[in-house]
Design brief:
alpha+beta, four-stranded antiparallel beta sheet, three-stranded antiparallel beta sheet, 6 helices, 35% helix, elongated
């Protein structure tokens, strides 16, 4: 198993079953603070940084919403957070639920460098308060 695959399995274990394995706490909704997650994983002897963890995130939506999104950015609407996916395949499934899918590539590394907080839920969904237009890139899938 590749080193990155092993790291991914460990992160899943921490977020789904044993947060104490990385000496972190999940909040009452099962979300982890990303900075604490990185520090906790590094404290186990494994090596991870934000660049490795995030690279890019994705958001699936329906084509009827894209014009508004590209003007106003992504907003949580009736939710507490904007939901982001770690891969294109998942974002595409989400987009299909709402109509003809459109995938947005989120420049999450840039967002993080500018101080925007992210949370990772137990089920692998990335969460943030909003995503400004400058961090969005519409993909041709």
């Amino acid at each position: 198993m590749r080193k990155l695959d092993k790291l991914s399995v460990f992160i899943s274990l921490v977020l789904r079953h044993k947060p104490e394995a990385a000496e972190i706490n999940l909040d009452e909704h099962g979300w982890a603070n990303v900075d604490e997650l990185i520090d906790g994983i590094n404290s186990t002897g494994r090596k991870i940084d934000m660049e490795t963890l995030e690279e890019f995130l994705y958001h699936g939506t329906a084509d009827r919403f894209i014009k508004n999104i590209m003007i106003e950015g992504l907003k949580p609407m009736s939710r507490l957070y904007v939901h982001l996916s770690k891969d294109i395949k998942t974002a595409n499934k989400v987009g299909k639920r709402h109509g003809k899918p459109v995938i947005l590539k989120i420049h999450s590394g840039w967002m993080y460098q500018e101080g925007i907080k992210f949370y990772l839920s137990e089920n692998g969904v990335w969460l943030t308060r909003k995503v400004d237009v400058k961090y969005l890139e519409q993909m041709n899938v």
